[in-house]
Each structure stands twice: as C-alpha cells, then as structure tokens.
Amino acid sequence: MAITDIPAFAHLTEADIEALAAELDAIRLDIEASRGERDARYIHRTIAAQRALELAGRLMLGASSKRATWWAGTVTLALAKIIENMEVGHNVMHGQWNWMNDPEIHSSAWEWDMTAASKHWISAHNHRHHKYTNILGMDDDVGYDLLRVTRDQPWKPYNVGNLVFNAILALGFEWGIGLQNIDLGKLLKPGPERIETLELAREFFAKAGRQLVKDYVAFPALTSLSPAATYKSTLKANVVANLIRNVWADAVIFCGHFPDGAEKFAKSDLSSETRGHWYLRQMLGSANFGAGPALRFMSGNLCYQIEHHLYPDLPSNRLGEISGRVRELCDRYDLPYTTGSFLVQCAKTWRTIAKLSLPNKYLRDTADDAAETRSERMFAQLAPDFSGIDPETGRRRGLKTAIASVRKMAHRDGVLLKPLARKHCATLAMATASADLPELLIRV
C-alpha cells in the first residue's frame, strides 16, 4: 500500500527532516542569488535556436516533397516542437524565467505549441501535481485516470488493456494533457460545476482548433504554393512531427514518475506535512535518468526530475549543478537517489504498466514491498533500533540501507525455503502412494 508515514519510511527523525530541509533551502538561496546574465543568455539562445529549427524544417518541406528532403524537414520540425515543448514551454510556464521580468518569457504570457491551453496545464501541473506529487486521489498524474501504475489502484477488468492504453496515450499525449483538467462528466449535471466545465471545454476546443488549423490547414496550404511540394506532403509531415513530439514527451515524463523507486503516498501524509516532509515526498516520488548534453537538452533537463520537483521554478539549465549537491545529501542521510539510463528507466516503466494489467493475486511481490508500490510496512521485520549509526561502519543507517537489508533477508529466506519446499514436495509424493496421507500432511 502507499506510504502513510513519510518519516517512518525514510528512517529519519523529525530533527533529521528539518535539518535536511534547511540544507535544501540553502541550495535554493544559492541558486537564486547567482541567477543572472548567463541564465538569461541561455533561454534567449534556446528560443532563437528553436525558432530557427522550425523555420528550417518548414523551408525544407516547402522545397521538395522527395523522400530524403521530406524526412529531413519532418525530423527538423519534430526537434523544434520537442524543444519548444520540453525546454521552453514547460519551463517558462513553471515560472523559471519570471525573475527576468521579460514580458515575452513569462509564465503568465506564454502559450505553447500544443493543443493544451497553457493556463489549464498550469492549474493541473503546477498547482496540483507539484503540490500533491504522487498522493493517491489528489495527483491526477498518477496514471492519468487511465493507467494502473500502483497496486493501490484497485484492479478493474479494463486494466488488461494497460499496455494498449499507454501506447495510445503516448501517441496522443498532447490531447491527454489538454483534456486532463476537464471532467466532461460534469457537463451532464446542472449547477455551477457544469458552467465552469463548459468554460474549460470552450477554452480547450478553441486552443485545439487553432492548433489543428495551423498544423493541418494553414502550413500545408502555404507549402502547396511551392511547385516542389504538395499540401498532402506537408500535412503528413506535421502529423508525424506531432506524433514524434508526443511520444518523446510521454517517455521523458513517464521515466521521471513511474520507474522502480518512484514512491506513492496516502492522503494521510498531508495531515501534518511540513516543508521538510514535502521535500522528502518530492525526492522519494521522482526518478532521474542519465543523460549527456544532447539528451539533457532534448528532455528539457527533466533527466533531473528529482531536482526539478524540489525546485520547479529554478532555471532548468542549473539543475545539473544542483544535482551534485542533492546526491551528496542523499548519501549523507542514506536516502536512495533513484536514477538509471534512459532506456532502463523506460523499460522499468513499461514493465510496471505490463505487470499491473493483472490483478494483485497474480503478482509475486506484496503490496508493501513491490518495485512500484512500497510502504513503511515493508520494514516490519527490522529491529526497532535499526535506524541511527551503524556501530560497525560508523555510517548512518537510513532508508537506502533498510531497503537493502529487507531485500537481503528476502533473498536469504528464499534460498533457505527452496530446499525445504523440495523436501515437502517429495514427502507429499510419497504420501500420495501410501495410506498414511493424513498423518504425513499433519507432519508437513
């Protein structure tokens, strides 16, 4: 089941948590004090490069509809859309560049190149997801009301389609994000909520309509004026570019929220949550992936999802610098720092989604000790005084060591039980051929 007691799960005292919070606050203050021309130059150059890429892609698509040129234009356009979505739009709307007081690059003014209306996304993402990260029943990003991603979600027959639904969501990710904030069921119920939902739906369909006209009518029509290209060739290029952008955004975001080690939490955690508890929830509920310069840039620096969740409004180009300090804190407090290669994190995410298409009774691990669903109850077999300083090593024993200890105990028990199970199977086989079956069953 989900974590209901963050300090108990993290193996930290309240004093430890407050000390951790103070150190994380100090990192924020350091970065805020050092923001300046270097950071402003980074975002201005990023926007200029993105616009140049989009223009180059459009020009290539207008220059020729031959296969090589078409693919070059389509891929270039897809790259431009990815950068606009991940490194520019997402980060600008988080308010990462508001400190510059640039009216163009401000969270209140930016409208990104997606069907989702910016203000709807800010409400669903900034105000809910980042505040209630991975809290069941409060964070809609836990499965997006479509996927089963934790054993805390009761299995329903439609969950057998988990993998299919995930593939559909990846291909149409911009539509899923656009509709996430709109409960269409409320349109059937009279009252204030119906009026509010109608307004949200109107704003969404207006934005989506503009996107459809731009990508699938205006630009193809403009390209068709060229004797070397056709309306159809540009229409197909825009469809493919949007699909590439959608699949990429889905993969990056899912790698940060659903691989092994990205924990889920119960509503009870909120009852007495301090800033230190909130920091811990962000660290435990997020996951990173390793990336070089190109992959970092194309992911919008969301390869540092842990750091992004700790400091969602700090400039994305500073997250790599922050990550070293966060890792050092995790090591000092013996907390896991969940990371892995991009392909491994993707594979773990799809594995979780595949596993959870089945009811819990067909799954091996318990609901408190599974790769995707853990809680403080998994440590019941550890001694009450486990936390603290290890007398042998002199190092802190915290969550990371506790998880390793439980895994080691489970492995040891499994090894010991295998020969015992074989012995019992042999005993039962003998009993089947004898008249002493009841007596032997009692002995087993």
Mean pLDDT: 90
SSE order in H/E notation? Answer: HHHHHHHHHHHHHHEEHH
Strand order of the largest sheet: 1-2
Low-confidence stretches: 420-444
Distance from first to last alpha carbon? 32 Å
Features:
globular; disordered C terminus; mainly alpha; two-stranded antiparallel ribbon; 58% helix; 444 residues
Task: Explain the overall architecture.
Helix 2 packs across helix 10 (275-285) and helix 15 (399-432) packs antiparallel against helix 16. The model is unreliable at 420-444 (pLDDT under 50). This protein has 444 residues and is mostly helical. Strand 1 and strand 2 form a beta hairpin. It has helices spanning 6-10, 14-34, 37-63, 67-93, 118-129, 162-171, 173-179, 192-223, 231-255, 275-285, 293-298, 305-310, 319-332, 342-355, 399-432, 437-443; strands at residues 388-389, 396-397. It has a two-stranded antiparallel sheet.
